[in-house]
Design brief:
This protein has an eight-stranded mixed beta sheet with strand order 3-5-4-11-12-13-10-14. Strands 1, 2, 6, 7, 8, 9 and 15 form a seven-stranded mixed beta sheet that branches. 28% of the residues lie in helices and 29% in strands. By secondary structure, the protein is α/β, with parallel strands linked by helices. It has nine helices and 15 strands. It has one domain: FAD/NAD(P)-binding domain. It has helices at residues 12-20, 51-59, 99-108, 160-165, 223-235, 286-301, 307-314, 316-332, 335-343, and strands at 3-8, 27-30, 48-49, 74-81, 86-96, 115-117, 121-128, 131-137, 143-153, 173-182, 190-195, 201-208, 211-218, 246-253, 268-270. The structure holds flavin-adenine dinucleotide. Residues 8-14, 30-33, 41, 43-48, 50, 53, 121-122, 154-157, 160, 176, 178, 215, 250, 252, 272-274, 278, 283-286, 289 line the site of flavin-adenine dinucleotide. This is Dehydrogenase (Flavoprotein). It comes from Gilliamella intestini. InterPro entries: FAD/NAD-bd_sf, Geranylgeranyl_reductase.
Length: 350
């Protein structure tokens, strides 16, 4: 084997794992993003760091550099139910940040003993005796092969590792759309929007560094039409859009059952969104990416004889926490429950 461990994807999950693995391993990590700058792949994201993600950074003794932060910082969430027209403001303690800078910063913390291939696309992961052969295209689109004993799928919502190795473990996917506008509201704000009747979506808006971002996750077939419909509806609620500066789109996993969370087998491990680890009620996923990477790093560093079984067992609490978000999402898409929750004194709805 060329390497002990191959990590596919360096989002929050893959970068965290690469940083926390023992230096005694020979590790290679492939990622489609460039090493620095604004070129190449950008992950569409609201760029809000929730409490649980902040806690993961506390455990890992990391603080965010100032240049990653964006304006304003957010502690008030305007929650809007378009069906019942109920509006409530809730307290949250998000950190508002630039997602691309955040991803590049996490990548920059990977120690130099890890071989990092930027601007590189993994094409295939094939089983061979004692491990896996990984085929990838380098930045000049030239094809190469390498081998590793363990493979970690940290390649996000549309994980190639999950699709190729576990085609039977499919997971529901939605299309997430975010449109950026020049901010024109008199005061910047953050909102989360429920509209499961006409556009069947969970949506949000965020003010960020002079821009106003509208985002939403929609069932695949009618995503574009529903996004436009949502914009029309919100225009009547005081939202100001104008001409979009940019539009971003990507798949997002939307777990629906406990078995949607799949952690891999036979020396392949899925972490972060590739494993289905994302909240079905708020699409918050960074904390689960950080947590699953941390759990896997401890297991691999300890030299556990059955790492797949151990990773499955140690992620049981995480999977049950995420299952509670599925239940919460089902309640929130039931108009009567949502109305009751929003009229009650419950402090966290989304
Ligand atoms: C529109 C939107 C808004 C969101 N907003 C928030 C938010 O505000 N807060 C929050 O906590 N969560 C948010 N999420 C969820 C969050 O972005 C994800 O859950 C999180 O990014 C998952 O991290 P990850 O490392 O598992 O995967 P990703 O961040 O998706 O990283 C995967 C990496 O793998 C690389 N990759 C993929 N395929 C390959 C390949 N074949 N070869 C090589 N590299 C590959 C990509 O370059 C990428 O960098 C949002 C999601 C969406 C879609």
């Amino acid at each position: 084997m060329d390497y002990d461990i191959a990590i596919i994807g360096l989002g929050p999950a893959g970068s965290t794992l690469a940083r926390l693995l023992s230096s005694s391993f020979k590790v290679i990590a492939l990622d489609t993003k460039h090493e620095v700058g604004n070129e190449g792949f950008h992950k569409p994201c609201g760029g809000l760091l929730a409490n649980d993600a902040q806690k993961a950074f506390i455990r890992q003794k990391l603080n965010l550099p100032k240049d990653i932060l964006t304006d304003p910082q957010i502690f008030s969430v305007k929650t809007i139910d378009l069906q019942t027209q109920i509006v409530r403001n809730y307290q949250r303690s998000y950190v508002n940040f630039d997602r691309h800078k955040f991803d590049l910063w996490l990548k920059s913390l990977i120690p130099s003993n890890v071989t990092v291939l930027h601007n590189t696309l993994c094409k295939e992961v094939r089983r061979i005796i004692d491990g896996y052969q990984i085929t990838y295209l380098d930045k000049n689109k030239k094809e190469h092969n390498t081998t590793a004993k363990y493979v970690v799928g940290a390649d996000g919502a549309n994980s190639l590792v999950r699709r190729m190795r576990y085609p039977q473990h499919t997971i529901r996917q939605y299309v997430a759309i975010q449109q950026w506008f020049t901010e024109q509201h008199p005061a910047p704000f953050y909102s989360c929007i429920f509209d499961n009747k006409s556009t069947n979506c969970y949506a949000w808006s965020i003010s960020k560094d002079g821009y106003f971002i509208l985002g939403g996750a929609f069932p695949k077939k009618i995503a574009n039409q529903n996004f436009e419909k949502l914009k029309e509806k919100l225009s009547t609620q005081g939202f100001i859009f104008g001409e979009p500066v940019k539009t971003e789109k990507c798949l997002v996993v939307y777990p629906n059952r406990l078995r949607d969370f799949y952690t891999g087998n036979e020396n392949i491990f899925l972490i972060g969104e590739a494993a289905g680890f994302i909240s079905a009620s708020s699409l918050e996923g960074i904390s689960y990416a950080l947590d699953s990477a941390e759990i896997l790093s401890k297991i691999l560093n300890s030299g556990h004889p059955k790492p797949n079984k151990c990773y499955y067992q140690r992620t049981i609490p995480l999977r049950f926490k995420l299952y509670s978000k599925i239940v919460k999402a089902k309640l929130l898409t039931t108009p009567l429950w949502r109305k009751l929750i929003m009229k009650s004194k419950i402090q966290h709805i989304e």
